[in-house]
Structures are given as structure tokens and as C-alpha cells.
Hints:
Blueprint (H helix, E strand, L loop, with lengths): L1 H10 L3 H13 L6 H28 L20 H7 L3 H4 L3 E5 L6 H14 L4 E5 H14 L2 H9 L3 E7 L6 H14 L4 E6 L6 H5 L2 H12 L3 E4 L5 H7 L1
Parallel strand pairs: 1-4, 1-5, 2-3, 3-4
Amino acid sequence: MNDQTLQQMKQLRLYGMHRAFTTTLEANHLAYTNDELVAYLLQSEWDDKHNRKIERLTKAAKFRYKASVEEISFESSRMIDKNLLIRFTSCEFIKNKENILITGSTGVGKSFIASAIGYQACSLGYKVKYYNINKLFAKLKLAKADGSYMKEIDRIEKQDLLILDDFGLQELDTNKRQAFMEIIEDRHGKRATIIASQLPIMGWHQIIGEQTIADAILDRLVHAAHRVELKGESMRKKRKKQ
């Protein structure tokens, strides 16, 4: 009977329950009451589905770094508001459809912090997508050529959290500016976005170009956004010295 039950669990894809029941049989845990056994099996199945969901979300996000908030250095020279970053881990900013703008010189940890927040969002069940922004623009250019542009834009719009890294390394041409405007417009007031950039926010207007569009983008992006301005020496250089 137990063999048949285990087989049916597999067929129903109750893998967490299957493992838990197998462990129970092998250990001969006769101390479980019927109620306790049912509760144990259900909890094991819930945990298994939850963990597999997080794994799927994390894989789909395609983060640049495997990162966690616990790994972030809060040494004083970096001037990071620890309380603010800890608040970000609750992902209330995603619920509130707010943006986070992370700026600082190369190597200070912008991408790592953005990825750490993204990983936390995945662990809470949010759909996240990470892009190097120049690679995203190249992808969208190809999508226009093969007719899948709107499909890509729709996919970006549906992400609960969009992370755009390395913004501002190149000035935007007409096509990039139009694509950026579409992305920001679609997400404004609907979804959360994190942007990481070496440039201070005051320099973004020039990078975007064309005044009217730049004004429109920054009005939607910067207004009421959370700002994280990183200082200090490059973390990469510090690791090499160590």
C-alpha cells in the first residue's frame, strides 16, 4: 500500500510529500499521530513548491551576481544607510511601485546591492528581471528587426521588479531613447524599477538627450524615488589587495 501511495505522489508531482513520506517510512517514525503525519506531509510539500518557485524566479531573473544583503559591507567609508537597505529587503517599495536609484563610481558595489535586493524579491515570490541596459537596448534592436519588439516590451512591463544596470555609460540615440521612454512610461505607477549608474543623477539628463523626452523620463523615474549614493574605494580593488 505504501509503495502504491508513493507512486501516486510521484504521478501527482507531490515531490516534497514523496520525500517526506519516504523519510518517515525509512526512519520508522511511529511516534506521529495521524494528524501530525498529515501536517508534516503537507508542510513538506508546501516547502518544496515554495523553494522550487524561488529557484525558478531566481534563474529567470539572470542576475549578474549571486548576492545577499547579509554580504553587503556597511563600513563607514561607503556611507550606506543600513536601515534604509534593510527596509528594502521587506520589498515594500515593490508593493508601493517605487523606484530605487543607486549611484557611485565604478567598483563600489552598485550592481551587487541591486542584485541582493533582487534576490530578496525573488525569495518573496516577486518576478524580477536584471539587465545590463546596453545589452537590453541591443536585444530590443534585434527584436524590432524580427518583429518581436512589442512582445519584449510587454515582458519587461510584467516584471514586478526591473533592474537596469550600468545606465549612462553611453549616450542614448533616438532608438534607445524611445525604447527607454516606453519602458519607464509602461512601469510608471505600476511596477518598481532599480537603476544603477556611475553617473550622478544630475548628469542623466544629458545622457538621455532630447530635452522634452529627458524631462518626461526623469519626471517619472526620479520623482519620489529612493536614492542610494555609494562612496569609498572600489570593492574590487579592496578584494585584490586582500
